[in-house]
Design a protein that fits this description.
The complex is a heterodimer of chains A (312) and B (291). Chain A has 13 helices and 8 strands. Chain A has 312 residues and is an alpha/beta fold. In chain B, 31% of the residues lie in helices and 23% in strands. The chains are: A alpha/beta (312), B alpha/beta (291).
């Protein structure tokens, strides 16, 4: 099957070395593979982290405010307090991820020093650099980054991201943008798969992606790293939709702890991601979940209010 | 069950509740191709993802993949798969292999579990220590010598010539091999922060010929025991070191990820073990039917 992620990890033709002089990309992508078929949940304190763990989350994302609150409150949004992240790490046994601002490599150094298991260089926080993303290969800790299209995904992988997610539109509860980004990436890969090497060189220039990585992706028929859905997933059906569109797993941000019964909804979304192809199970777990998060309609939002445009 | 008696068809399931199940399917396919070139008996192998009991019932053997053991265990519990899995491994004793999270689930006792503990399937009389080496930044690759591969498959599989490059991701280890007891590991249950698997009685009618021997240590990780933090050191068996692969009857567990290496040698070896076990089971079933 062309859509399988091969067991040997490659990053185009290059396998850059870390500071210790070893290629650790296999180990970085290895953890992402272990998270596949699972749900990663945004949490703002240790108590929420425990609820997520009990619901069957494969990891938690520690952050100070969920995207819906960041959106409502405004201001500059930064890396969380290391103390809060440490408390969460001490409370759960599943991997703990944390967000750093785009381009803010010192926040990444701090998160690595604390010992988080994954860093999300995230557009949900206020970008710290107008042009550059963090050079991620030299870090020992692996990175996940968001994308809206194939070019953006491959630029991030080239910088060292060991895992990709759709950007979607965080904090809205509207899945339309996550769907748009996943469909865009898939359509671009399908088109690239039918191209000759000469045509791929032109495409690489157009989408500003490294040729080697683009060629590898075209050959595989999918992104060469694990790819999760994120940004607007609020229901079990949303999660299963993203899985059926070809995502390897799902991030849920505001969708859980901004809903009526967080624990029940979290469990339901976990089951939905495992049984994404079984509508009977999806119907069962979708029953009686209480209030979903209120949600913002992305179609009626101003461009300046959208987070997905952050990142270069 | 499922596959026809006396036929050469074997169905292998990979538990697909969460984790790196597809990687195992890929390596099983590669391994089957290698076997096709060396086997006298031609097998028809079927590899499939398992998410519910009817799918499990159709399998002759099972792989429990890497992933998050807490998530796999909770999902299994909520979709009523825990008991069918315990039946598969411990009552009818069909061959099962667990990697990383799979090893944790197959252990009779586990340490460093989440608050409130977690459900285990059991099948291996060992105690595992979760996330033994620490967090993700402590994850690593190491060259292993695996003597059991060479014994079974000869020169091409000699890991002293061509080491097995193993990948350890937030990996557990077997920190203690437990004496085999009939029933649950109640001695372990009384220890702080240790969870145990519930006991199940083997069904002698369908699992004839399977002797519940002691646990065999199949591989250790040299030179790592010294790196263990001091507070954990005293809990380790002095003679044990870091045990990273064990087998007890037809249950096999590895704390590393052969499915991330692209090296199918362990999968080839395991399919051969399964092949023999299935033949024995079918022969015994045929004898019983005749008498």
């Amino acid at each position: 099957m062309a859509t399988e992620l091969p067991t040997r990890t490659t990053n185009g033709e290059r396998m850059p070395l870390n500071a210790a002089g070893e290629d650790n990309f296999t180990v970085k992508t290895g953890l992402a593979r272990m998270l596949k078929g699972g749900v990663i949940m945004d949490v703002v304190n240790a108590e929420q982290a425990r609820i997520a763990e009990e619901a069957g989350a494969v990891a938690v994302m520690a952050l100070e405010r969920v995207p819906a609150d960041i959106r409502a409150e405004g201001g500059v949004s930064r890396m969380s307090d290391p103390k809060m992240i440490r408390e969460i790490m001490a409370t759960v046994t599943i991997p703990v991820m944390a967000k750093a601002r785009i381009g803010h490599f010192v926040e990444c150094q701090i998160l690595e020093a604390i010992g988080v298991d994954y860093i999300d260089e995230s557009e949900v926080l206020t970008p710290a650099d107008h042009a550059h993303h963090v050079e991620k290969h030299p870090f020992s800790v692996p990175f996940v980054c968001g994308c809206r299209n194939l070019g953006e995904a491959l630029r991030r992988i080239s910088e060292g991201a060991a895992m990709i997610r759709t950007k979607g539109e965080a904090g809205t509860g509207d899945v339309v943008e996550a769907v748009r980004h996943m469909r865009t990436v898939s359509a671009e890969i399908n088109a690239a798969s039918r191209m000759s090497d000469m045509e791929l060189r032109v495409l690489a220039k157009e989408i500003q992606a490294p040729y080697d990585l683009l060629k590898e992706t075209a050959k595989l028929g999918r992104l060469p790293v694990v790819n999760f859905a994120a940004g607007g997933v609020a229901t079990p059906a949303d999660a299963a939709l993203m899985m059926q569109l070809g995502c390897d797993g799902v991030f849920v941000g505001s969708g859980i702890f901004k809903s009526g019964d967080a624990s029940k909804r979290a469990k339901a979304i976990v089951q939905a991601v495992t049984h994404y192809n079984d509508p009977k199970v999806l119907a069962e777990v979708s029953e009686d979940l209480g209030e979903a998060m209120v949600g913002l309609n992305v179609a009626s939002m101003d461009a300046k209010d959208k987070m997905q445009g952050r990142g270069w | 069950m499922g596959s026809q008696e006396g036929s050469s068809a074997i169905t292998i399931g990979v538990l697909a509740l969460q984790g790196a199940f597809n990687e195992h399917v890929q390596l099983l396919r590669e391994a089957a191709q290698i076997l096709a070139t060396k086997d006298i008996i031609q097998r028809t192998w079927t590899f499939k993802e398992i998410r519910n009991k009817p799918e499990l019932d159709s399998c002759d053997a099972l792989i429990i993949p890497g992933g998050e053991s807490t998530a796999i265990s909770l999902v299994a519990q909520r979709c009523n798969m825990l008991e069918p899995l315990r039946d598969f491994v411990k009552v009818i004793r069909k061959p099962t292999w667990g990697t990383c999270a799979g090893l944790i689930l197959l252990a009779e006792a586990a340490n460093a579990t989440k608050k409130g503990g977690q459900e285990l399937i059991g099948g291996l009389d060992v105690r595992v220590n979760r996330n033994h080496f620490g967090r993700q930044i402590e994850s690593f690759q190491a060259d292993l010598n695996l003597p059991f591969l060479q014994q079974a498959d000869g020169k091409d599989f000699d890991t002293s010539q061509k080491p097995f490059r193993a990948i350890f991701i937030r990996a557990p280890i077997v920190e203690k091999v437990l004496p085999h007891v009939s029933g649950a590991q109640t001695g372990q249950a009384s220890l702080d922060e240790t969870v145990t698997a519930p006991s199940r009685t083997i069904d002698e009618n369908v699992a004839k010929g399977i002797k519940l021997a002691d646990v065999e240590i199949m591989a250790t990780l040299p030179g790592r025991a010294a790196a263990v933090q001091d507070d954990k050191k005293e809990k380790l068996d002095a003679e044990a070191g870091d045990i990273i692969a064990v087998r007890q009857a037809n249950v096999f567990g590895t704390s590393f990820h052969p499915e991330l290496t692209g090296d199918p040698r362990i999968h080839v070896w395991w399919l051969e073990q399964v092949s023999e076990a299935v033949d024995r089971r079918r022969a015994l079933a045929a004898e019983t039917a005749e008498s």
